[in-house]
Structures are given as structure tokens and as C-alpha cells.
Amino acid sequence: MSARLKRLDVETVRDLLYLFPRRHEDYSTAVKIADLTPGEECTVVATVWEAREVAKGPKGGRKDTEAVLSDDTGNLRAIWFGQRYLARTLKPGSRVAISGKATVFKGQLVFENPEHEMLDSAGSGVHTGRLVPVYPLTEGLTRRNMRRLTWQAVQNWLGGLAEALPDGATLVAGNSMSVRDIDSFLPSTSRALRIVGTRGASGIDGVASTAVGAAAVAEGPVALVVGDLSFLHDLNGLWPIARYDLSLTVLLVNNDGGGIFHMLPIREYEPDFTAYFATPHGLDFAHAAALHNLPYRVVGTRASLRTALLDAFASEGSQIIEVRSERAENQRHHEAVYQAAASAVGKILAEEETS
Ligand SMILES: Cc1ncc(C[n+]2csc(CCOP(=O)(O)OP(=O)(O)O)c2C)c(N)n1
């Protein structure tokens, strides 16, 4: 896989994030079979009635999968050319989402080579039911492979947080980039989360105290996402944790200074920018954790973040989990994601204008 990705100049997760889709297909609208408009891109959620392998082409050399899918309003036929293995995946009674354009053949609705996704399997919602990106490909890499890889890359840390937070949890959004990133990138979830923060005149003051206050009154687990400067600014706010035996999980995003200021043009004006805006401190938060007698760990991968968060929410007590980040890199990363989103939206608007 890595050799194939290298042909697309993709060697790191960052390269993967910078690999922009060539276009997007709009599979975001789920429709009932009875309401399908032939020729329009859409997603249908249906149950597999039957699926079988069919020999086609000269001398029956090509093996297709043909399936009949139904919902409570009707049924349709789906054909995948040359993809015999799908006949085994599409088990009768299983639920599947298919996305593509329907045509009408002999009075029946047919989808040819639609994107599909088994709905009970992990990771559903990558290939169907949204604006689905179409990436440049190279031999041996399928559209599905590319999409899964880039999905994993952008879902990274906030995705891990959203997955780990249990029903009824409270998420305290620190000021500066924490609240902005949560607002922009926390994936949607059907779990009941309460998201709180303090916006306004106090700026980055009292962020730890706010979270400690939430931990004192909330029913479920409480997690705080906070930048290093804000955390440092209110370190003494952690004191009530020991005094009142509170449970709080701090997810500390340590980029050694104020990452938010890199989002502004002032970032070009060195050395004053670093000295007076970014203000790196070079401090080690292991000592802050020790001061408050809190368990502390630094996590470097999505998997270890996930494990640390799941452990934290499964146990009583408080801890500090630190994720390290790099300010300038973080700004480029944001820019790349915003540009990809803007180009996808721009394309849709342009298409709407011409239609
Ligand atoms: C009390 C107070 N002092 C200073 C500021 C100005 N200020 C806004 S954001 C920020 C940097 C915050 O850095 P950090 O908490 O590490 O978060 P990041 O920007 O890296 O996300 C500062 C100093 C403020 N908002 N409030």
C-alpha cells in the first residue's frame, strides 16, 4: 500500500491531508425508493432481498453481482459489473446504503456500479450518505481505499474524542483554538453530549476552574479540551479536584504557546511574533500534574489517544492526557482543510447556479 501511495507523492499523514479530492459527488440526500428521481445522485438505505453472482460478457467470462434491494416503499435492482465477491457480502436481510444515479430499465429502477456500504459494519458513512470525495488514483489503489485512508487522517484526534465520549458526558471547550476546533471539526454523534464553555470578556481566564466547576455538578463524565497557555494561566484552578474528590479528564493540546495567533497575518513578523504573540514557555506539564497529584500521560497516536480516553471515562478520578502539536504546522493543516471545504462548497454553488 505504501509503495502505491508513494506514486501519488503520499508518504505521511500530512501528504494525505494535502491530497485534495478532484471532485465530490453529492450522496448526502437519502431518499425512499418510491421517491427516487432517475438521473439524480442520491443515497438509498435498503434491505438486501437477494444477491447473486451472474455470468455475463463473451462466453460468460465476466462475473457480475446482481441484487434486489427493498425498503418500505418499493424495490430496485443493483448491478456491480465484474464484482462477483459482492454477492457473498450482500447477505439477504442485511442493511446496505447505496449511492449513485438510478436509471430505468424495462420499467424497473436500476443502479449500475453504485457505491455501497454495509450499514452494520464499523466505519459506515464513509462511502455513502454524504458529500463523497473522489481522489486521484494510481494503479492498485481503489476509490474506497483512498477514501478510507483520508477519512482516517481527518478524523484523527477530535474524531477520537467524539468516539470515546459516552452518552451523558460534558465536554468543556477551552477558549482560543479549542472551542473553534470543536465547533468546526468535532464529528456529529447521536450520543447526548453537553458542550459548555465561557465566551466573552474573560478570554482565556478561568478555563480550568470552569471545567472543575462542571465536574462538581455534572452527572456524567466531564472532559476539558484546553490549550497549554490557557491551562497554565489557571493551573491553581485544579486545586478543588483533590479537595472535593472530583472526576475530570483534561485533554491538553500542547503546542508550546498560543496557536491561535498563527491564524493571523502577524505570523509573518518575526522575531517579534514569537516573542510577543506566540509566547512559547517550554514548560513540562508532568510537573503540573505532579503538583496536583494527577495521573499524566502524553499520547502520540490516535490509537493511544483513544485508549487513554476510554480508560479515563471508564474509571473514576481525574487525569491529564497531553497531545503535542506544532503551531505552524497546525496552521497549514487548518488552511488545507478549510480550502478543501471551500472548494467542495464552491463547486456545489457553481453547479446550482448553472442548473
Ligand atoms: C486573560 C487573557 N489573557 C490573554 C488573552 C489573549 N489570548 C487569546 S488566545 C491566547 C492564546 C491561548 O493559547 P492556548 O491556550 O495555548 O491555545 P491555542 O491558541 O494554542 O489553541 C491569548 C494569550 C486572553 N484572551 N485572555
Features:
single chain; 355 residues; alpha/beta; OB fold (Dihydrolipoamide Acetyltransferase, E2P); Rossmann fold; six-stranded parallel β-sheet; five-stranded mixed β-barrel; 13 helices; 14 strands; 25% strand; binds thiamine diphosphate
Explain what the structure shows.
- With 355 residues, the chain is an alpha/beta fold.
- It has three domains: 67 residues, no CATH class; 105 residues, OB fold (Dihydrolipoamide Acetyltransferase, E2P), CATH 2.40.50.140; 168 residues, Rossmann fold, CATH 3.40.50.
- 35% of the residues lie in helices and 25% in strands.
- The protein has 13 helices and 14 strands.
- The strands form three sheets. The protein has a six-stranded parallel beta sheet, sandwiched between helices.
- The chain is elongated and about 75 Å long.
- The protein starts with a helix and ends with a helix.
- The model has no long low-confidence stretch (mean pLDDT 86).
- It binds thiamine diphosphate.
- The site of thiamine diphosphate has 14 residues, from α6 and α8.
- Thiamine diphosphate (TPP) binds next to α6 and α8.
